[in-house]
Specification:
The structure is a homodimer of 111-residue chains.
Chain A lengths: L9 H4 L3 H12 L2 E2 H8 L3 H13 L3 E6 L2 E6 L5 H8 L2 H21 L2
Antiparallel strand pairs in A: 1-3, 2-3
Chain A binds a DNA duplex (30 and 30 nucleotides) through α4.
Chain lengths: 111, 111
DNA sequence: TTGACATATTCCCATATAAGAATATGATGA
DNA sequence: TCATCATATTCTTATATGGGAATATGTCAA
């Protein structure tokens, strides 16, 4: 079996760095495709294709305004990723504490 | 150009669902490969390959204990993902507020 | 050393890219 | 309707998968 499609879920969609850039730009304010092309230094078809992926997994929304199509990040779609990664937070805190404790123990034992 | 390697960073590594399962299991306590094979219902080579990817991006650590090799999630590696997704938090809060406000406005205008 | 257990690697293949080039679709104003 | 701007899709190609099968490597006990 091959790798899961980029459109299979938000995890796969944000694995692509350019798509993360796009999300960061579009969360501040909605932008037409052309503005993204200019900002990212990518060609227009590539941007459109990335936007399609993001749209399919619900990470961006679009609306037409005249000839332009305005895209915006749908931040809710990122929430599940934040929550999944959040389940590890207490563990990396533990690791930090352990390092800290060890450092303090060392400081005491050989001053 | 093809898709970035799964080993290129943590974002790509966790895009694979089985690898997220592995991380969830190994963050609670360290386990040998065989235990993962049993828990996941995957064959041993597949598990070893997933572990290799996770090791290469720094998401798991391993130590030998006799014939066994004990793996454990290195939670620090997930932190950048949590932080990146966290930059969108205020926006999904905003969206929720906006929906709420609109609902209240509607309730007033047509009661 | 040998046998057995535990894990890792290699080879194979169907599948899915991401970017570039070319083209198609959509919307507007004259 | 036509010309033009804006965006989307199709096609091609190099590359990287993930799982299955087979095999290699590593470690211990006797």
């Amino acid at each position: 079996m091959a790798r899961a499609a980029t459109t299979s879920d938000a995890f796969n969609a944000v694995a692509e760095p350019r798509r993360r850039e796009i999300l960061a730009l579009l969360v501040v304010r909605e932008l037409p495709v052309g503005a993204l092309v200019a900002s990212l230094g990518l060609d227009q078809p590539s941007v459109s294709k990335h936007l399609r992926v993001l749209r399919e997994v619900g990470l961006v929304r679009a609306r037409r305004q005249g000839r332009h199509k305005l895209y915006r990040t749908h931040a809710e779609g990122i929430r599940p990723l934040h929550e999944w990664t959040g389940t590890f937070e207490r563990y990396w805190s533990h690791q930090l504490n352990r390092v800290k404790e060890r450092a303090e123990a060392n400081a005491k034992s050989k001053p």
